[in-house]
Amino acid sequence: MTAIYQSLIRHTAIYGVGQVLARMTSVLLLPVYTRYLSPFDYGVIAVLDLVSAVLAIVLGGGMAAGAQRYHFETDAPEERARIWSTAILFVAIPPLPILLVSWWFRAGIAAATHGDADPSVADLYSLVLPTVWFLVLNQTADAFLRTRKQSKASVIFDLAGLALNIALNLYLLIGLGMGVRGVLLGNLLATGATAIARTTLLFAQLPWTRPSLRTLGLLARFGLPLVVSAVLATGMHQLDRYLLRVFRDLEEVGIYALAHTISQGAASLLLIPFSAAWEAIRYEIAPRSDAPQVFASVFRAFTYAIGVLTLGMALFSQEIVSVIAAPSFARAATFVPLLSLAYLMFSLHQHFSVPAYVHKVPEWTMAAFVAGFAATVGANLYLVPGLGGYGAALAKLMAFTVFSFAGLFFYARIERYPYPIVSLVGKGVALGLAFALVQSACASLETVGAIAIKLSLWLAVALAALMATRHEVAAERTLAPGLSPLDAESE
Q1: Residue 236 has pLDDT above 70, yes or no
Q2: Per-residue model confidence as pLDDT tens digits over 280-311
Q3: Contact at 8 Å (CB) between 84 and 67?
């Protein structure tokens, strides 16, 4: 195994550990948050998160991605210093007047995002807007560390910031009883501390060089298309919460947001570490003569794994929500099965998009994002007014399905892989019918009996998936010789 490959696996594994720990911590803290925040409070935070995410993307201007790209265009230390100096100053200074104007008109912004439900939301923007500024600084400084392959430093900052955020939130929320304001103040302080520490390390390692307008133009030209994709992706993931606020109320948003956090968090436990390794391994597979068959084999095994996870979340959604959330959030359990299935559909895109990356045409992914965003808007506008949170969950399933399979349609024009779509759809339909029958049978049973039946189905499916995955591994070994992605870490 080459030194480059070893480096990629090591660094992506380190990043994966940090991300998984962050996701697990978020899920484990839900019992605390849902007992000190009402569904209405949770809805307020969910909409503020959407606004923050979009603002951070726009104000960042794609500078982090552009700086990473042009860092490797030169070996000259002075030019690299100019690239990063330009990027960090662009995200530090121009956003300030924009955020100041936003603060001045925060009452109007609050009315647009949250309606007239809570006049205090305008004051909450006094905490959200500086958090966005620190977030943009943080992302750019972290891109510098990642580009320099300082993955351990990056993850240490992440984990330290996470620990500080948790401590502050628990103290402000439980100890001082500050509610939503306490959560937002904790986020501001933790993000600010991490941003200052990361940026300080950046300047400590970077000899100061005067920024360049020419360099700024190069970075913007590369980064701005990525801003569009990122905004579309954010809309796909979070626009439903805003439309729920428009057509229903913030309490409905809060209940739905909890279900979304549970479903996305569970899926991330598999998706994040897999993606971290897959981003490197797919390039090792690509030169093989049997690459299409290997990609199809990995796709099948991955689908078995995430299918088992999705079935478990769907079967035990009521039990999970009852354990980790206050009774006022109980209705979130009805949204979890659809949202979990939605993230299964979303995860397929990382397999379908392989041709775009191995053939160095990632701009082809834009078509999938446009299709997914259009489906998000259309489905939510049609379903949410009548069905509320259930309609939003169904809309997300539809939109993520369009996103992945529209991508498959476009990427197949670059190179076609023999993904076993038809057979997997058949298995999925069979599992869906089994799920419906079990849910119907359990409706009239006591809790213990219902759990026993659900667990029996899940274990049977998990065992079948394990046997099928072992078969995939054995079949992949019989293909043309070369590095196997399933053996990569032991090579």
Answers
A1: yes
A2: 677 777 788 888 888 888 888 888 888 989 98
A3: yes
Alpha-carbon distance of 124 to 136, in angstroms, equals 19
Distinct helix (H) and strand (E) counts, the chain: 20, 0
Instruction: Enter the tokens of residue 76.
Output: 């000259």
* Residue 87 CB partners (closer than 8 Å, separation 6+): 63, 64, 66, 67, 140, 219
The answer to whether 178 touches 185, Cβ cutoff 8 Å, is yes
What is the 8-class DSSP label of residue 443?
Answer: T
Q: How confident is the model at residue 491 (pLDDT cuts 50, 70, 90)?
A: very low
How many CA atoms within 13 Å lie on the side-chain side of 141? 28
The Cα 301–Cα 255 span in angstroms is: 33
Helix/strand/coil percentages in the chain, nearest 5: 85, 0, 15
pLDDT over 80 at 349, yes or no: yes
Closest residue by Cα to residue 11 from 146, 144, 143: 146
CA gap 399, 30 in Å, rounded = 27
- Which amino acid is residue 214, in one-letter code? R
**Cβ of 75: how many Cβ atoms within 10 Å?**
7
| Pair 8, 280: CB distance under 8 Å | yes
Contact, 393 vs 338, CB < 8 A?
A: yes
Give the CA radius of gyration of the chain. Answer: 23
Whole-number pLDDT of residue 3: 42
In this predicted structure, the answer to whether residue 11 has a pLDDT above a threshold of 70 is: no
**Which residue ranges make up each domain of the chain?**
37-247, 250-491
DSSP string for residues in 161-195: HHHHHHHHHHIIIIIS--HHHHHHHHHHHHHHHHH
Contact present, 301 and 286 (Cβ < 8 Å): no
Interatomic CA distance for residues 220 and 226, integer angstroms: 10
Q: What is the pTM of this model?
A: 0.76
DSSP-based three-state secondary structure for 211: coil
Strands (E), 181-278: none
Residue 71 CB contacts under 8 Å (≥ 6 apart), including other chains: 80, 83, 84, 147
Alpha carbons 403 and 361: distance in angstroms, whole number: 18
Helix 63-71 and helix 121-147: axis angle, to 10°?
Answer: 10
What pLDDT, on a 0 to 100 scale, did the predictor assign at position 82?
Answer: 83
SS3 of 360, please? coil
Burial degree of 287 (CB within 10 A; 0-12, 13-18, 19+): exposed
Which span out of 96-105, 290-299, 321-330 was modeled with the highest average pLDDT?
96-105
Q: Compute the C-alpha angle 227/95/368, nearest 5°.
A: 10
